[in-house]
Amino acid sequence: MSENLTNLRPGEKGRVYAIDxxxxxxKRLYEIGFNTSAHVTVIKNDAGPVxxxxxxxxxxxxxxxxxxxxxxxxL
Amino acid sequence: xxxxxIALVGNPNSGKTxxxxxxxxxNQHVGNWPGVTVEKKxxxxxxxxxxYDVVDLPGIYSLGAFSExxxxxxxxxxxxDADVIIDVIDASNIERNLYLTTxxxxxxKNVVIALNMVDEAxxxxxxxxLEAMSSALGVPVVATVASRNNGTDAIIQEAVKAIDKKVSYxxxxxxxxxxxxxxxxxxxxxxxxxxxxxxxxxxxxxVEGDKHIxxxxxxxxxDEAVVNGIKEFHKFHSSENFELEIVDSRYxxxxxxxxxxxxxxxVEVVTLSDKIDKILINKYLGIPIFALIMLAVFQLTxxxxxxxxxxxxxxxxxxxxxxxxxxxVWVHSPDWLVSFxxxxxxxxxxxxxxxxxxxxxxxxxLSLLEDSGYMARAAYVxxxxxxxxxxxxxxxxxxxxxxxxxxxxxxSTRTMDNKKDRMVTLLITPFMSCGAKxxxxxxxxxxxxSSHGGLVLFGLYAFGILIxxxxxxxxxxxxxxxxxxxxxxxxxxxxxxxxKSVLRTMWLHVGDFIKRAGTIIFLVITIMWLLAVLPGSxxxxxxxxxxxxxxxxxxxIFRPAxxxxxxxxxALFAGxxxxxxxxxxxxxxxxGEYMEEGVLLVNAIQQHFTSLTALAYMVMxxxxxxxxxxxxxxxxxxxxxxxxxxxxxxxxxxxxxxxxLVFQIGSLFGFA
Lengths: 75, 672
Prior knowledge:
- The complex is a heterodimer.
- By secondary structure, chain A is of the alpha+beta class.
- Chain A has helices at residues 23-31, 63-66, and strands at 2-4, 13-19, 39-44, 50-54, 57-61, 69-73.
- Chain A has a single domain (2-73), classed as SH3 type barrels, CATH 2.30.30.
- The longest helix of chain A is centred in the middle third of the chain and has 9 residues, at 23-31.
- Chain A starts with a strand and ends with a strand.
- The model of chain A has no long low-confidence stretch (mean pLDDT 91).
- Chain B has helices at 16-24, 68-78, 94-106, 118-123, 130-137, 152-165, 177-190, 199-208, 211-220, 224-236, 242-261, 272-280, 286-308, 310-330, 335-353, 356-372, 374-388, 394-404, 406-412, 419-428, 438-448, 453-477, 499-533, 546-558, 566-574, 581-594, 601-608, 611-623, 628-638, 641-668, and strands at residues 4-10, 41-47, 50-56, 84-90, 111-116, 127-128, 141-144, 262-263, 488-491.
- In chain B, the strands form 2 sheets. Chain B has a 6-stranded mixed β-sheet, with helices on both faces. Chain B has a two-stranded antiparallel sheet with strand order 6-8.
- In chain B, α25 (566-574) packs antiparallel against α26 and α28 packs antiparallel against α30.
- The radius of gyration of chain B is 29 Å and the shape is elongated.
- The termini of chain B are far apart.
């Protein structure tokens, strides 16, 4: 099941399936660890930017950008 | 023979500057957030009797640079100036850090790896097989903890060995068949052509679609066939995402290495950082906690720097002053020399030096904050609110740096990859009150608000933030329309600040403050003194002196704000070269005016101001034209004389309006 990052609750996990952002933002996401099938765990998702953990390292993504990261959710 | 060069390359916040300081014994600013270093720094060290140059570069995640600090690092790597690269890797974050490493290996760079901060990785129960890593990557790997100087000698040794060996590596990566096929085609196209890069690497970048590299290649090869070949390729394959395929190959390589050589715990260790974050960046508590932290900073600054230690510094300056005066009288110095030394140097420059304890405490607290890891959290909690004003959270880091000094704050905007974000942030950082303004507030607070020092200071800083945000909104609606950039920010683990690094950062600022007192402040005060005692026909420090006449010209401007004497106007004028000179000038002028022993600056201010005009004056100081050093930083960063002049004028205007509003509204309500 694929979902964009803003739809995942804290504790939910997924793998990066696609990134639907502009060219530069996409490149930024790649280089900070959002490559295809990278494991992502949502740490915090409320009002502010979404915080995810990739290999135990925390990255905050603005909500606009987080909405463009599509994950294949782990069930 | 040319001195051999070692370059430090790595992800942001991987500890390059800490390692640089450890290797060279330098004192460069370090902190715990991504983007502390924004320019190239150089140093040297000697090993076995030979001197080596070391270059510290801003952090990068990959060789596709966006922001100006990253371009500096990328250009340095591409132009091939270094004999060896020390690739500094954050041990807790192997895969992503290796992503950059793979790109260095693709280029065939002479690389040695410093696997840094292994102590933190160990706390998270991550273990490494260094030998396996080294043989899998084909380059030496050394475990280091740069902050404790562990492994520094070993990494130097490996780097020097690598320089002497001059090995050239072959690219260890494998790409998809599709990508390989096209790369082969490009290599054939480039064969025999004169290029600044190897044909193999150029082929990777062309297939990847790196616009910067492609333009360099096209500029250097004057060959229609090649230029057309590249164009045709991209036109023909526009629907395919080779970039993603190549990115994935790099990560796959990094992942394989990590799998073979890194052992992680089954269940991730919940660190103290995670627990702290549950509170500090809570949806509701985030901003109130930020406000509390800042309030604590100001309260402590006042309680320790002023109430506890301030008296000693003032007494010391006074004692030295009286010693000097006795000495000058004893040797029958001419009157003008006594006047200059006592009114100018002791009461002028001395008035600034008295505040060394105050600013020392503030810089100590700010550098604790910088080293703790909180800066990135502040950016996070402010992102939403910043968006309402057309900015993004990252800009908030520049704003906090501005609490210390506006010059590095302006330089820190280099990390923003969006031109609009950068300009708007740059234009509002001067409203963030800096350390040099602290002495000014301090004397006015001592004169009128002494029981609420920390609170008044907090209010001023908060007002500065508010004005900055409102101006940002205005700029976004008018001059800089368009979307603010996306927010991406790593949240590094909290660290207990290392004493060495905190004291170093503190000293960088305090040393600078003292140096400024002895140089630019001294110079400004000397000029002010000369203008105040000349011409000889006028009584010194009177309205008939040159300075008095200049001040009198300025008086009508400031009368609506309530501070309408020539001394106060002239002091603001003196503050444009350097803010500390406001206090210095007032100290000198009042001392000269009263001509009696023991009249303290604070008492003189009580006679010249009311609490309302003091408040208006502080607001003016908070907002008006930034110091010369800031303006020159603006000129350097914007490369525009127009923007520099605009900055000087618009901030003056905003400061004036706000000071007038404070005075007029306050008067209306019957305050005095």
